[in-house]
Amino acid sequence: MTANDRLLAAELVLGLLDDADRAAALERLLADPAFAEEVAWWQLKLAPLLAEYAGATPPPALEERIEALLREPHERDGTAPLALPGKSAPRWRWLGAGVAGGAIAASLAAMLLIPASPPPMPVPVAPAQRPLLVAALAPTPGQERAPVAIVIDKTTRTLRLGGAIEVPAGRSAEFWRIGPDKVPVALGILHTDAAGRITLTVRELPRPTDTIAVSIEPLGGAPGAAPTGPVVATGVLATA
Amino acid sequence: MKRPEPYPADPSATLRARREALRGALIATGFADRVAFRRVYDLTVRKLFGICLRICGERQAAEDVLQEVYLTIWRRAGSFDATRASPVTWLAAIARNRALDWRRANRRPAPDPLPAPGAAWPGEPADDAVEADEALISEEEVARLRACLDALEDRPRAAIRSAFMDGFTYSQLAERAEVPLPTMKSMVRRALLRLRDCLDDDR
Predict the structure, then answer these.
(1) Cβ–Cβ < 8 Å for A215, A231
(2) Which helix (H) or strand (E) holds A175?
(3) Which residues span the domain enclosing B168?
(4) Disulfide-capable partner of A133 in A24, A152, B77, B188 (CB 3.0 to 4.6 Å)?
(5) Residue B164 counted as domain residue
(6) Contact at CB, B167 and A55, closer than 8 angstroms
(7) Rounded distance between C-alpha atoms, residue B171 and residue B125, angstroms
(8) pLDDT tens digits, residue range A53-112?
(9) Chain A interface test: which of B15, B39, B81 (most A C-beta within 10 Å)
C-alpha cells in the first residue's frame, strides 16, 4: 500500500474523484482487499463528520410509500421481497440469499455500487457511459469462504476475478447470468490467460441487476443449456 | 438470574444501546424482516434525510432519493458485515452515494454550501449534541477527528470538509476557490497525508 494508494482511498471516500477516476477506484476496491481495508479505514475515521449534517424530518407519507414498495411485488405475484433476488424461482431455490458476512469488499461494494434500479427521479438524464459491471459473488451457504469480486468490462467483454474460486481437478467453473426471466444463460468457462490472470470472455453481456452464478461443471462446461453441477457462488451485478 | 438493566442515565450508555439496537435491526433487515426495517428507518431517517437534503439541495429530489436509499438498504442489508462495518457509516455512505448519483445524473451544480453553523465545525452550541446523537457517534470520536482536522491549515481543512459534506469533487473545489486544479489537488493531498498520520496512532 503506497502513499498514493492511501490517498486514492481517502479521495474515494470523500467523493473528490471525477467519474473516470471514481470508476477506476471502484474497480480497484473490488479487486484489491488491502485497498478495500484502507477505504474502510477512512470511512470509519471520517464518520464523525456525519454528525455535522443537520437532521431533517421527511413527510410521513414517505414511509408509507416505501413500505408499499416493499410489499408490492410480494403481494402482486407471490415472489419474494426485493431483498432476495432469485429466491423465489423454483429452479434456483438453492441460490438462497447467502450473502451474510464475508469480506469487507462485499460490504463496501454494497454501499458504493448501488444496483441500477430505475429511480423515480424528476427529469432523468442519461448518466455518462460507464463501461464496467461489478458484483461481489458470495459463496453459497455452507461454505466458509470470502466473497469474490468480479468486474466485467463491457467494451472488451472480459470478466476478471478479484479472488480465487476453487475448482476440483478435472472440472470447470462455468459462469451464468440470470435475468428477470430466471433462466440461466451460460456466459463461459473460467480459464487462466497468458498473463496468468483468471478471466473469461463473456458470450453475451449481462445487464446490471442480473444475478451472476458460478457452477462446477464437467471439464469444458455443462453439456446442455442449463447448469448441472453445484452452484458455488452468486451475486448481483451493478454498474460501477 | 439476569437482573434488569438500570435505566442508562449516562449518555454514552444510551448511545451504546441505540447503536446496538440499530446494528441488530440492520442484521435482521438482511433477513427481510419488515419490523426490523421499520426500526432502522425510525432510528436513522432524520440523519439520512438531512444528508439527502444537503447534497441534493432541493426537497422533492431529496425525498425521491431518500426513498431509493431505503429501498437500497432493504435490498442490501444482507451484505452488511456487522463484524467489520459500523451501521451508521454504512447507511450514511449509501445516502451520500445515492444523493451524489442523483446530482451527477441530473447534471446539477453542487448546491451552495450552507452557512456554517456558528464559527468552526462541530462548534459548541447545544444542538450539536443532538446532531451527534442522531448520527449515533460519540463525542470522543468527534473530538478526535476535530483535533486532527484543526491541526491542518484553514484552506485544505475547509476543502476536505466541503468534499465530505457537500460532495464537491476536486474540480468543483478548485473552481470555487478560484485556484488551478493541480494546486487544489496537491494542497488537499498533502493535508490528507497529514490527517492520516494524525488519525493513525491506533493502528
Answers:
(1) yes
(2) strand A171-178
(3) 151-203
(4) A152
(5) yes
(6) no
(7) 33
(8) 888 999 999 999 998 888 755 443 333 333 333 333 322 222 222 332 234 555 555 445
(9) B81
Return the pLDDT at B126. 35
Instruction: Looking at the structure, tell me whether residues B117 and B180 fall in a common domain.
Output: no
A101-130 in b/e form (b: 16+ CB < 10 A) is: bbbbbbbbbbbbbbbbeebebeeeeeeeeb
B104 and B166 both lie in a single domain: no
Residues B75 and B163 in one domain: no
Task: Say if B7 falls within a structural domain.
Answer: no
In this prediction the pTM is: 0.59
Let me know whether B20 and B86 are in one domain: yes
Asked whether residue B20 falls in the same domain as residue B115, the answer is yes
Nearest to A127 among B71, B105, B196 (CB): B105
Residues B181, B88 share a domain: no
**Contact indicator for A122, B64 with CB cutoff of 8 Å:** yes
Contact check, Cβ <8 Å, A53/B68? no
Q: A-chain residues within 8 Å CB-CB of B160?
A: 14
Over residues B71-130, the pLDDT tens digits come to 989 888 887 877 767 888 889 988 998 898 888 777 666 555 544 433 333 333 334 444
Q: Is residue B45 part of a domain?
A: yes
Residues in chain A: 240
Q: Write the burial class of residue B56 (CB in 10 Å: 0-12 exposed, 13-18 middle, 19+ buried).
A: buried
Distance from CA of A193 to the nearest CA of B (A): 31
ipTM over 0.90: no
Residues B98 and B156 in one domain: no
pLDDT by residue (tens digit) across A149-164? Answer: 888 888 778 888 777 7
Least confident of A215-219, B5-9, B170-174: B5-9
Q: How far is A65 from chain B (nearest CA, A)?
A: 8
The answer to whether residues B160 and B104 belong to one domain is: no
Instruction: Find chain A residues with C-beta within 8 A of B78's C-beta.
Output: 83-84, 97, 99-100
Number of independent structural domains in chain B: 2
Rounded CA gap, B5 and A226, in Å?
Answer: 56
